[in-house]
Each structure stands twice: as C-alpha cells, then as structure tokens.
Amino acid sequence: MQDLYIVNWLIKNTEKPNDNIKWQPHEQSPGIHVATIKGATASIDLRIGSVSDRTGSRVIVELSSDDLGKVLIEEPHMSVSLRRKYDSDDDKALAEALRNLICSVRFQDTDRERQEIGNKEERKKAMFKRLLDTL
Fold first, then answer.
1. Cα distances (Å, whole numbers) of residue 20 to 23, 36, 53
2. Which pairs count as long-range contacts for 80-84, CB under 8 Å and 24+ apart, including other chains?
3. In this structure, what DSSP letter does residue 73 have?
C-alpha cells in the first residue's frame, strides 16, 4: 500500500516540530493547501483538498514535479449500502490517514495564524511602549 506509506510520511513531516513541510492556503482556491518539498536534485509540489461527489466529500492529495508529472492519492469511495463502509481494511486505513493528514495541515495553518496574531500583539505593545518612551 504505497499510497498509505506516502500519506503517513506526509503526516509525520507535517507534524514535526520544525514543520519540515510548510503548508500554505492556496490564495485562489479556498479549502486547498499547497506546499513544496525541495530535494537535492528536484522538488515536489503538493496540493491537498477535498472534493464532493454523490457519496460525500473525499480528501485528495496531488503530488507533482516537472520531470515526473502528477500523481493523485484519493480517499477511496465508500460502498453505498445499508451501512457506509470501505471495500477493504486497506481502503479504510488510507481514508483515515488522508483525513488525519488534512487535519494536520489545517492545524499547522491555524497554529501559524495564532502565532502571527501573537506577534502582531507583541509588536503593537512594543510600538506603544516606544511611543510612551519618546514622550
């Protein structure tokens, strides 16, 4: 299950304290996040988001590079029966990993926003203190 291995690797490197993978919201596509992994010889561009279809929303990760083209990793479709379920345990594991990845990406983005707000507040306090010191 190569897809699962790739998704777990992305989760691990998204959740590392130093944020090996820095996801950014795509400016023109709400709900889409992008990142670039720079290697020694080439880079890989990443996109993650969700798409909706008749069975609900599914997470999709796109990996692309100039020399290799694009590869999609898609959350498997659920079987539409009396109980919604995946066709196999591998499909279920991949779906859970993709959901965990998109949560990690959103958490990273939210955490960065909180830090920026804190930095703005600190700059505002420092500016106010500097103004008071000049009086």
1. 10, 10, 32
2. 80/55, 84/55
3. E
Taking 70 as the threshold, does the pLDDT of residue 80 lie above it?
Answer: no
Residue with tokens 């703005």: 120
Per the structure, the count of domains in the chain is 1
Q: Which domain holds residue 100?
A: 2-110
Distance from the Cα of residue 104 to its chain's centroid: 6
pTM for the complete prediction?
A: 0.77
Do the domain assignments include residue 11? yes
Residue 118, domain member (yes or no): no
The backbone region for 34, taken as left when phi is positive above 0, alpha when psi lies in -120 to 50, beta otherwise, is: beta
